[in-house]
Design brief:
The complex is a heterodimer of chains A (225) and B (198). Chain A is built from nine helices and no strands. Chain A is mainly α and 225 residues long. Chain A has two domains: 133 residues, no CATH class; 47 residues. Chain B is built from nine helices and no strands. In chain B, helix 8 runs antiparallel to helix 9. With 198 residues, chain B is mainly α. The chains are: A mainly alpha (225), B mainly alpha (198). The interface between A and B is large, with 117 and 102 residues.
């Protein structure tokens, strides 16, 4: 192929990153049984960018009090685009990287499927419609804030959304059963993390570095065997 | 106290003030490990205490409304930008404020997350990547429970809070163990609150 032909060929190349083909577990015996659980992937996926956008928009508009509980219920339980394990792993990465967790999750999920366009599509779905709604609500709040019923309703919804987030954490704890970190350590890390962040208000960065690092080292050691 | 729609500007923002606001949110984006909500104390210091671009009430209301509203809670940043712009005098400034704060809080972390996760996905069979993703799981779950706890304790009204705690606990159990749609539970909480039972 001459130089011009090569350039033309490259110009026609798709812009999506080429991901390696999914390795079949039986061809990688060195990786052990842990590989089977992490590469057991979800049965379904969105059919197109539009499906992704619509799904995330619909998801976000149901997310009163925060989208996490809805994301978990929709993507894992109803649509089955992610397994419990995949969701917890993705959420782990989304939490440890800077940025809003649900936004990070959307970027990662969309990016895996459709590259940069997928990431931005999922992001747009998550934010565009709710942004309009939230500004309208702020304008309404301006008008009606004096009514105690409005303040009361906001208070009630804030209390419920705290419960929603707690429930999501409890549901995701199912995934710990398959985790290479031994269960006793899982519980210890979880309890310590909760105490340090919720009760003692230790800066998140330090807690992540120490307890996250501990968990990673334990997982590393177990995965070797 | 809320800012009425037709407003005399409370603050004056020059172009370098907008730039300051934007760059501060760019910085906050990089520090927002665990979500934008983890940087709210710094936002408070910058917007309310240092520059007086936002009142305390507007700050609290932004977070509360964004939480109650559908969508990611990061939209409280948009409301803060909206309020800053409204304080500066016009709905146009408010829209600009939304753009400034949202772009600031999203752009750095979006780029970082996208490229880091693409790398992680391409290398997902490396032991170090698997160890990371699975090793973080216990802490991740703990942080979720911690967020739930912190939000549940934000009632801030002392003795009356036990009812709010009860609502939080009840909704947690209902969502965890039943398949009742989330909106019903939220509606119930809103109704109880509106009827002044909380």
């Amino acid at each position: 192929m001459d130089k011009d032909g090569a350039a033309a060929h490259n110009a026609r190349m798709p812009s999506l990153p080429a991901l390696p083909p999914e390795p079949r577990p039986e061809l990688r015996p060195d990786l052990g049984p842990a590989v089977l659980s992490t590469t057991a992937s979800a049965p379904c996926r969105p059919a197109s960018l539009r499906a992704l956008f619509v799904a995330f928009t619909w998801l976000a508009l149901q997310g009163f009090g925060g989208v996490l509980a809805v994301v978990q219920r929709e993507l894992v339980e109803r649509k089955q685009w992610l397994t419990h394990e995949e969701f917890v792993e993705d959420w782990a990465v989304a939490q440890v990287l800077p940025g809003p967790n649900v936004v990070n999750l959307a970027l990662m999920f969309g990016g895996r499927l459709f590259g940069l366009r997928g990431a931005l599509t999922a992001l747009a779905g998550l934010l565009a419609a709710p942004l309009v709604v939230v500004v309208l609500l702020a304008l309404l709040h301006n008008r009606f804030a004096a009514y105690p019923a409005v303040e009361g309703a906001l208070r009630g919804m804030a209390a419920v959304s705290a419960g929603l987030i707690g429930a999501t954490g409890l549901k995701m704890s199912v995934a710990l059963a398959n985790n290479p970190v031994p269960l006793g350590w899982c519980v210890a890390i979880a309890v310590a993390g909760f105490v340090l962040v919720a009760l003692l208000h230790v800066p998140l960065l330090y807690v992540m570095a120490v307890l996250g690092g501990l968990g990673c080292v334990l997982a590393w050691r177990r995965l070797r065997a | 106290m809320t800012v009425p729609l037709t407003t005399v500007p409370m603050i004056v923002l020059a172009w370098h003030d907008w730039l300051n606001l934007f760059s501060h949110f760019l910085l906050l984006s990089l520090m927002s490990v665990g979500g934008a909500i983890s940087t709210t104390s710094e936002m408070h210091r910058f917007l309310v205490e240092q520059h007086h671009w936002l009142t305390q009430a507007q700050f609290n209301d932004s977070i509360a409304i964004a939480q109650a509203a559908p969508g990611p809670n990061v939209l409280f940043v948009a409301l803060m930008g909206w309020n800053v712009g409204m304080n500066a005098g016009s709905p146009l400034a408010a829209a600009f404020g939304v753009a400034v704060t949202m772009c600031g809080i999203l752009i750095p972390s979006t780029f970082l997350t996208y490229f880091a996760s693409q790398w992680g996905h391409r290398n997902r069979h490396l032991r170090v990547v698997r160890a990371f993703k699975q090793g973080m799981a216990p802490l991740v779950i703990a942080l979720l429970m911690a967020t739930a706890w912190i939000l549940a304790s934000a009632g801030g009204r002392g003795a009356a809070d036990w009812r709010l705690w009860l609502v939080s606990l009840a909704s947690c159990l209902v969502i965890w163990r039943t398949r009742l749609h989330l909106l019903w539970v939220l509606g119930a909480g809103a109704l109880l609150g509106a009827l002044q039972l909380l």
